[in-house]
Design a protein that fits this description.
The protein is α/β, with parallel strands linked by helices. It has helices at about 10-20, 40-45, 70-80, 100-105, 135-145, 160-170, 170-190, 195-215, 220-225, and strands at about 5, 30-35, 50, 60-65, 90, 110-115, 125-130, 150-155. Helices cover about 40% and strands about 15% of the residues. Strands 3-2-1-4-5-6-7-8 form an eight-stranded mixed β-sheet, with helices on both faces. The structure holds NADP nicotinamide-adenine-dinucleotide phosphate (NAP).
Length: about 240
């Protein structure tokens, strides 16, 4: 399958790696459009590179847009000029709607997906919504590609991608913030940084697996960890001693 990835930062590179790792495309079928030269050595084993959006994109089955949302306006005109109607465009840009994609690119077969950072190690979760023009074969192809970076989940209602962005798209940042805060607290209480870090990370890992295996709700698991408060001490009947 011929694939172009426009923007090869964290996510674009993760996609290229996963597609190659699972044999979903060959090196000579993967076109990587880059802006800066810094990642050339890293990207070279994965695909062929281009510094411009050019006509060779028109030969791809799928075009993935993985630039930051604020960079989309700068590329949409040149991309619209080379797209062919039968191609599928998959955007992972946060907040750019199917309607805006379709209008800016003058293209009908568009998919909007929201991955998350663990996609970089093949453990992501991606929710996606497809435009009405996609056929079943194209939708399944997109899902197979997204599955190579972790798990993919189809949403019939595109509007749900906003809560998905809050939950799983941004979720890793909440998680890292909790980890960082706990490690900082441990250090303030006297633990060595490496000890605090090991305690917190293993606690997170173990707690995740417990939740997966324990067949109990998070609420029940919280209760199981909390110690019961001591019963209040009976009030003394004696009057307080005079000092
Ligand atoms: N990171 C996440 O956890 C995450 C989660 C969900 C969704 N997303 C979405 O994924 C997209 C990419 O995020 P990211 O974290 O991978 O960002 P990133 O690391 O900044 O990567 C974006 C890449 O796009 C390149 N680029 C910009 N304009 C270009 C152009 N005209 N031609 C070719 N390449 C161009 C940038 O090049 P330079 O190196 O020159 O800047 C950069 O390498 C974003 O739209 C974001 O909303 C990210």
């Amino acid at each position: 399958m011929k694939i172009a990835i426009i923007g090869c930062g964290n996510m674009g590179t993760a996609y290229a790696r996963s597609f190659r790792k699972y044999g979903l495309t060959r090196r000579d079928e993967l076109l990587l459009v880059i802006r800066s030269e810094g990642r050339r050595d890293l990207l070279d084993p994965l695909g062929t590179m281009s510094a411009h959006i050019g006509p060779e994109i028109g030969a791809c089955d799928l075009v993935i847009v993985a630039v930051k949302p604020q960079d989309f306006a700068a590329i949409s005109g040149s991309l619209a000029a080379v797209l062919k109607p039968e191609q599928v465009v998959l955007s992972i840009m946060a907040g750019i709607t199917l309607q805006r994609l379709s209008e800016s690119l003058k293209h009908r077969t568009v998919v909007r997906a929201m991955p998350n950072a663990p996609a970089q190690i093949g453990m992501g979760i991606t929710a996606y919504a497809a435009g009405t023009e996609l056929n079943m074969r194209q939708t399944l192809q997109v899902e197979q590609l997204l599955n190579s970076t972790g798990r993919a989940m189809h949403l019939a209602d595109e509007a749900l991608l906003d809560p998905v962005t809050a939950l799983s798209g941004s979720g890793p940042a909440y998680f890292f913030e909790i980890v960082r805060t706990m490690i900082d607290s441990g250090m303030r209480l006297g633990l060595e940084p490496h000890v605090a870090s090991a305690l917190v990370k293993q606690t997170m890992l173990g707690s995740y697996h417990l939740m997966e295996h324990a067949d109990r709700t998070p609420e029940e698991l919280i209760k199981a960890v909390m110690s019961k408060a001591e019963p209040p001490r009976p009030r003394s009947r004696c009057s307080p001693r005079k000092m």
